[in-house]
Design a protein that fits this description.
- The complex is a heterodimer of chains A (153) and B (452).
- Chain A has two domains: 58 residues, no CATH class; 77 residues, Beta Barrel (OB fold (Dihydrolipoamide Acetyltransferase, E2P)), CATH 2.40.50.100.
- Helices cover 8% and strands 36% of the residues of chain A.
- Chain A contains one helix and eleven strands, in the order H-E-E-E-E-E-E-E-E-E-E-E.
- In chain A, the strands form three sheets. Chain A has a four-stranded antiparallel beta sheet with strand order 4-11-9-6, with no helix packed on it. Chain A has a four-stranded antiparallel beta sheet with strand order 8-7-5-10, with no helix packed on it. In chain A, strands 1-2-3 form a three-stranded antiparallel beta sheet, with helices on one face.
- Chain A is elongated, with a radius of gyration of 17 Å.
- Chain A starts with a helix and ends with a strand.
- By secondary structure, chain B is of the alpha+beta class.
- Chain B folds into three domains: 100 residues, 3-Layer(aba) Sandwich (Rossmann fold); 70 residues, Dna Ligase, domain 1, CATH 3.30.1490.20; 238 residues, D-amino Acid Aminotransferase, Chain A, domain 1, CATH 3.30.470.
- Chain B has an eight-stranded antiparallel beta sheet with strand order 13-12-9-10-11-14-19-17, sandwiched between helices. Chain B has a five-stranded parallel beta sheet with strand order 3-2-1-4-5.
- In chain B, helix 4 packs antiparallel against helix 5, helix 7 crosses helix 8 and helix 13 runs antiparallel to helix 14.
- The longest helix of chain B is centred in the middle third of the chain and has 19 residues.
- The radius of gyration of chain B is 21 Å and the shape is globular.
- Classes of the chains: A mainly beta (153), B alpha+beta (452).
- At the A-B interface, strand 10 of A face strand 2, helix 2, strand 3 and helix 3 of B.
C-alpha cells in the first residue's frame, strides 16, 4: 500500500459518511476510524515508508532497540505512561497543546493519550522549552515510548 | 476465524499460543513488560507492544494496558494463557464489552468456578463425588465446630475466592479450630478481598488426579482423560503424567460421564480442568475446577493427539467439537512432564540470571516447551519456569527411559535448575512403581533441605 493509495483512501473516507473503514490487501492492513463529530480520521501506521514491511503494522518486534530518539543528555524525554493513541490537541481541528519552541511549566498538559475511550492528559514533569515532538498526531504509542523532548530551564 | 489474536501472557505459554496461532494462520500480537523486552515471545509474534514496567501488577495484570494494546493493534481476540488474567472474570467481561473475543469460558461461568464452594455445589448436584465438608462459606465458629465434628478431624479450611495456599489452614483438633478459622478468614480477606472460608475433610497424602475437559459453544462436552500430578512441593507441581497408573478404565469412564453432565449443566465453554484428590481407598473427591488451559496440558496432548490450544481457538471461533476432534478420544501410550525451574535442586533457592549455555534435548518421543534461549535472561520478576520437558512412550516404562535420557542431555549453564532433582525422582523405585502421592518428596527424602 503506497502513501498515495493511503491518501486517496483517506480522502474517500473523509468525503463519505462512513464511521470506520478497515481494509486488508494481501499482508497490508489499514483501519481508519472516525472519532467525534467532526470526522477525525486516525489511521494506524502501515509503515513509515512504503518499502517497510507492512507486517510490522504497529511496532517492530522488540529485537530492535526501543525507539529512543537521539535526545542529548541535557534534554528530558517525556515518555508515555500508558498504552494508547497519541493526540496533540484537545479535539480535532483545535490548536495543538504545545509546539516545538514553546515554554512549558510543570503540570502543563502536553498531549492526550486515549486508552479504552478515555482521554488521559499527559503533563510536563519539568519546566522548560519543548525541544522536539517525537510522535505524529493519531499514532498508537506503547508504554515508555518517547513523546516529547524538553530542554529544562 | 480470527484474523489477529493478542496473547495476554509471557514466557513459554505465550510462545505456545503463538505456535497455535501460526498453525492456524492467525496473526499474533505479543505484549511485554520492560523486563521482557528481549524475550522470545516478542520475537516470534507478528507485532509486540510494551505495556508497562516489570512489575506484573502494572503490566501483565493491568487490564487497561492489555485492552489498549489490543485496541491499537486491532486484535479480534485475546488468549489469556494461564495465571495472570486467565481466571479473572472482570477481564473476560471487559474483553467482551471492548469487542474482543476472550478465548476461554464466559465471565459468568468463570465466576461460578472461581467461587470454590459454588463450584462444589454445582458438581455435587451433577453427581460428581465431592469431599465431605461445609455447604458454603462458614458463617460462625459454632457451624465450623459442628461440621468438623460430623466429618471428623483433621479438616482443611480453604479460601473460597482463591488458592495458592493462601487462606488455607489444616485443623487437627477442636481446640485449634477457632483461632485457625480466624486466621484463614483474615488471610483470605487480605489476599482475595473476600474473607469467605469453607471446610473440607482433609485427605492425608492424597494422589492428585485431574481431568481435562473441552466444551464447544454449542453444548457439546468431551473429557480427554486424566493427568496425575502427585509429585509436588508446597502445592507446586513438579512432575505430571498421563494417564494415571491408578485410574482404571472403569473409573475413568464413570467420572467422565459425570463430568460431561456437570459441564453441560453449568453451560461451560472452552477448555477446563477438574481437580480431584484420591484417598487411600482409591476414591476420587472433587476439589476445584480450573477454568483455563493448564501448565501441564502437553501430557494430555501427547497421549490423545489433540492440540488443546488450537482447539481452544477454534472453539472460541465457533467451531463444533465434532469438527475439532476427529474421532472418539483414545489414550495412546504414556507421557510424563518435568517442570524445569530456575532454582537450586537441593535448597530450592530461586536462581534467576542469564543462561550462558543451553542444549535442549530432542530425539524420539521428546518435546520441549520453553521460552529460554542462549543468552536469555530468567527474570526475578516472574515465575521460575525455564522449560517443560515432556517425554512420550508407548508405555510408562518407555516414557521413563526417554525422560531419563532427555534429562541427561538437557544442559543449562549460568543458572541452577531442578534438572538434578527430576533426575533423582525418575530413578526412585517409588516413582517407577507408581507409588505416588503428594507426600512423595518428603517421604523419599528427595526434597533435601526442605524447611517445610
Amino acid at each position: 500500500m503506497t502513501n498515495e493509495e493511503i491518501k486517496e483512501l483517506l480522502r474517500i473516507f473523509n468525503e463519505s459518511g462512513v464511521g470506520e473503514l478497515e481494509l486488508q490487501r494481501g499482508k497490508d492492513r489499514l483501519r481508519i476510524r472516525r472519532a467525534g463529530e467532526s470526522g477525525w480520521a486516525s489511521a494506524p501506521p502501515v509503515g513509515a515508508a512504503p518499502a517497510q514491511s507492512p507486517a510490522a503494522a504497529l511496532v517492530a518486534p522488540a529485537t530492535e532497540p526501543a525507539k529512543a530518539p537521539e535526545a542529548d543528555s541535557s534534554q528530558v524525554l517525556v515518555k508515555s505512561p500508558i498504552v494508547g493513541t497519541f493526540y496533540d490537541a484537545p479535539s480535532p481541528g483545535a490548536p495543538a497543546f504545545v509546539k516545538v519552541g514553546d515554554k512549558v511549566d510543570v503540570g502543563q498538559v502536553l498531549c492526550i493519550i486515549e486508552s479504552m475511550k478515555l482521554m488521559n492528559e499527559i503533563e510536563a514533569e519539568v519546566a522548560g522549552i519543548v525541544a522536539s515532538k517525537l510522535v505524529e498526531n493519531g499514532r498508537p504509542v506503547e508504554y515508555g515510548e518517547a513523546l516529547f523532548a524538553i530542554l529544562p530551564h | 476465524m480470527f484474523q489477529k489474536i493478542l496473547i495476554a501472557n509471557r514466557g513459554e505459554i505465550a510462545l505456545r499460543v503463538i505456535c497455535a496461532c501460526k498453525d492456524l494462520g492467525i496473526r499474533t500480537v505479543a505484549v511485554y513488560s520492560e523486563a521482557d523486552r528481549h524475550s522470545l515471545h516478542t520475537r516470534f509474534a507478528d507485532e509486540a507492544v510494551c505495556i508497562g514496567p516489570a512489575k506484573s501488577a502494572r503490566s501483565y495484570l493491568d487490564i487497561p494496558s492489555v485492552i489498549s494494546a489490543a485496541e491499537i493493534s486491532n486484535a479480534d481476540a485475546v488468549h489469556p494463557g494461564y495465571g495472570f488474567l486467565s481466571e479473572n472474570s472482570d477481564f473476560a467481561e471487559v474483553c467482551e464489552t471492548s469487542g474482543l473475543k476472550f478465548i476461554g469460558p464466559t465471565p459468568g461461568v468463570m465466576r461460578l468456578m472461581g467461587l470454590k464452594q459454588m463450584a462444589r455445589a454445582a458438581m455435587e448436584e451433577a453427581g460428581v463425588p465431592i469431599l465431605p465438608g461445609s455447604k458454603g462459606a462458614l458463617k460462625s465458629v459454632e457451624e465450623a465446630q459442628k461440621i468438623a465434628g460430623e466429618i471428623g478431624y483433621p479438616v482443611m479450611l480453604k479460601a473460597s475466592a482463591g488458592g495458592g495456599g493462601r487462606g488455607m489452614r489444616v485443623v487437627r483438633s477442636e481446640e485449634a479450630l477457632q483461632s485457625l478459622l480466624g486466621q484463614a478468614q483474615a488471610e483470605a480477606a487480605a489476599s482475595f478481598s473476600c474473607g469467605d472460608v469453607y471446610m473440607e475433610k482433609l485427605v492425608e497424602n492424597p494422589r492428585h488426579i485431574e481431568f481435562q475437559v473441552l466444551c464447544d459453544e454449542h453444548g457439546n462436552v468431551e473429557v480427554l482423560g486424566e493427568r496425575e500430578c502427585s509429585i509436588q512441593r508446597r502445592h507446586q507441581k513438579l512432575i505430571e503424567e498421563a494417564p494415571s497408573t491408578i485410574v482404571s478404565p472403569e473409573l475413568r469412564k464413570r467420572i467422565s460421564e459425570k463430568l460431561r453432565e456437570a459441564f453441560k449443566a453449568v453451560g461451560y465453554t472452552n477448555a477446563g480442568t477438574v481437580e480431584f484428590l484420591m484417598d487411600s481407598s482409591g476414591d476420587l473427591h472433587f476439589i476445584e475446577v480450573n477454568a483455563r488451559i493448564q501448565v501441564e496440558h502437553p501430557v494430555t496432548e501427547m497421549v490423545t493427539g489433540v492440540d488443546l490450544v488450537t482447539s481452544q481457538i477454534r472453539i472460541a471461533a465457533g467451531e463444533r467439537l465434532d469438527e475439532i476432534l476427529t474421532g472418539p478420544v483414545e489414550i495412546r501410550g504414556h507421557a510424563i512432564e518435568c517442570r524445569i525451574n530456575a532454582e537450586h535442586p537441593e535448597t530450592f533457592a530461586p536462581s534467576p540470571g542469564q543462561i550462558t549455555g543451553l542444549n535442549l534435548p530432542g530425539g524420539a518421543g521428546i518435546r520441549v516447551d520453553t521460552a529460554a534461549y542462549h543468552d536469555g535472561v530468567i527474570s526475578p520478576h516472574y515465575d521460575s519456569l525455564v522449560a517443560k520437558l515432556i517425554a512420550h512412550g508407548s508405555d510408562r516404562a518407555q516414557a521413563i527411559a526417554r525422560m531419563r535420557r532427555a534429562l541427561d542431555m538437557f544442559v543449562v549453564e549460568g543458572i541452577y535448575t531442578s534438572i538434578p532433582l527430576h533426575r533423582k525422582i525418575l530413578d526412585h523405585p517409588d516413582f517407577v512403581e507408581g507409588r505416588l502421592d503428594t507426600g512423595f518428596l518428603a517421604r523419599t527424602g528427595l526434597a533435601g533441605v526442605d524447611k517445610k
